[in-house]
Amino acid sequence: MGLRLPGVHGGRPRLVVTTTPRPTRALIGLRDEAGCALTHAGTADNAAHLTPGFLERLRDLYGGTRREAQEIEGHVVDLDGALFTAEMMARARERLPSPARGEGKLERLIVAIDPTTTVGGDACGIVVAGSRRRPDGVREAVVLADRSAHGLSPDQWARRAVAAAEEFNAGALVVEVNQGGDMVRAVLKTAGCALRIREVRATRGKRVRAEPVAALYEQGRVRHAPADGLPLAALEEELMAFGGEMEGAGSLDRADALVWAVTDLLIDAPEGDWGPRVRWV
To answer: Which stretches does DSSP call E strand in 5-49?
Structure first.
């Protein structure tokens, strides 16, 4: 009720919510509001004020589980029915050679885009990822950056995507064109895109498109190696909402962009990029 008082903070009252992020509809809806400023702190950030060994004992008990992700790392975690689990996310974050540090050279690198056509709509999903072959010969995808953002006009998200492609020396943009059609290609060209633009269309629901990507996570064939070394927390939270009861509580634009990226890199690679592959129908 206090938020309605005109005299509070010059007529712009603020609400501060501090909580362990249980995946409730109210919390997810609040997080996705345009005016929400989100900060995050895990238990490790308070380690200097904890009893020696306390954090290690917690990790011994809950390491790699949903409880660790929620209670120790402070993430909104997966629910019953979700395609992507906290265990999958923990495995994807395992320390491996990082292309961002010049290790584990990538064969292909793309920027995947789940665009928005209005400033006040959902976020524009922008994910940078590449593929490489492991020593055992298995090909895997590596996620390097999540440049998704809310509140961008078509020109702004297009320039943001082009800048990400230039930063990582990507070879192509993969963009969903269900919304906007020819406009999407036009705004990318206007923003200075000189790369190949591969248009993809969503002919199936989000869950159906995401199922083969979840299987690749389960097989350990998708890795998270962000170039700045910071966790891909927002992206991982959206992935863990896929298929769960909270899927409709907020937008999944980051996760959608990731699904398009992994699909392009490992499942439906363009003709000539490499040899035989599985095509999901």
So the answer is: none
Give the domain range for residue 186. Answer: 86-267
- Name the burial class of residue 133, with classes exposed (0-12), middle (13-18) and buried (19+) by CB atoms within 10 angstroms of its CB: middle
CB 166 within 8 A of CB 143: no
Q: How far is CA 246 from the centre of its chain?
A: 17
Q: What are phi and psi for residue 146, nearest 5 degrees?
A: -120, 105
- Residue 54: CB atoms within 10 A of its CB come to 11
Q: 228 near 242, Cβ under 8 Å?
A: no
Could you report the per-residue pLDDT of 64-116, keeping only the tens digit for each? 666 677 777 777 665 556 788 878 888 898 766 556 555 568 889 999 999 88
Domain of residue 225, CATH code: 3.30.420.240
d(C-alpha 275, C-alpha 121), whole Å: 40
Confidence of residue 243 (pLDDT cuts 50, 70, 90): low
Q: Kindly give the pairing relationship between strand 108-114 and strand 125-133.
A: antiparallel
Contact at 8 Å (CB) between 162 and 175?
no
**DSSP letter assigned to residue 50:** S
Alpha-carbon distances of 192 from 46, 69, 164, rounded to whole Å: 45, 40, 12
Structural tokens at position 156:
């702004």
In a domain, 256, yes or no: yes
Q: Is residue 119 part of a domain?
A: yes
Q: Return the closest-CA partner of residue 263 out of 241, 239, 280.
A: 280
Q: What is the pLDDT of residue 279?
A: 39
Q: Is residue 44 part of a domain?
A: no
Cα four-point dihedral sign 111, 116, 117, 118 = negative
Number of folded domains that form the chain? 1
Residues whose CB is less than 8 angstroms from the CB of residue 101 and which lie 6 or more positions away in sequence, other chains included:
none
**pLDDT > 70: what percent of the chain?**
76
| Choice between 265 and 5, residue whose per-residue pLDDT is larger | 265
In a domain, 19, yes or no: no
